[in-house]
Amino acid sequence: MKNIMTTAGLAVALFALILVPATSFADVALNIAFDPAQACPGDDVSFFFSLENVGADAEQVELSVMIDFNGTSFGPVVGTLELAAGEVVSDEVALVVPPLTAPGALTIDATATDSGGSVNDTASLTINDCGGSGTQTVGLAARVAFAVRKAMGHVQKERF
Questions:
Q1: Which fold is adopted by the domain 24-159?
Q2: Domain assignments of the chain as residue spans, ordered by start
Q3: Residue 3 above 90 pLDDT?
Q4: pTM of the full structure
Q5: In the prediction, which pLDDT does 158 show?
Q6: Cβ neighbour number for residue 9 with a 10 Å cutoff
Q7: What is the pLDDT of residues 68-83, one digit of tens each?
Q8: CB atoms within 10 A of CB 57
Q9: Burial zone of 36 (CB within 10 Å; 0-12 exposed, 13-18 middle, 19+ buried)
Q10: Residue 64 and residue 135: Cα distance in Å, rounded?
């Protein structure tokens, strides 16, 4: 009787494995960030971008970036690049928050997709009301879009 139950248990476990879809994982690591994460109009800010192939084989990677500032979205910035096994592309871009920038939250959402799946990272920059803030939103978004394009200099851009 114990043999029959063990065999039945193994059969159920095997059947469950067959029904569960295979999970795939991306072979790339993505990191984006602002430093500092909060700023006032007129402040210097750095944007950092890093993409690494952590797999054993070369990968064709599609990178898609969306920028949102106070509910207004820009993008996507989309591009592709070939990364050799272990290869890292990275850049740090300095920018100045325009003097008349409205207070609010700027968010960059980036997704890197390879043959195994996708990874995502988000960077946020809070613009504080520092007494001299304005109402402009496009100036900061345009500067950040330029910084993203510069940081993605290694990427073959398909569209902006």
A1: Immunoglobulin-like (2.60.40)
A2: 24-159
A3: no
A4: 0.74
A5: 43
A6: 10
A7: 988 888 888 888 889 9
A8: 12
A9: exposed
A10: 28
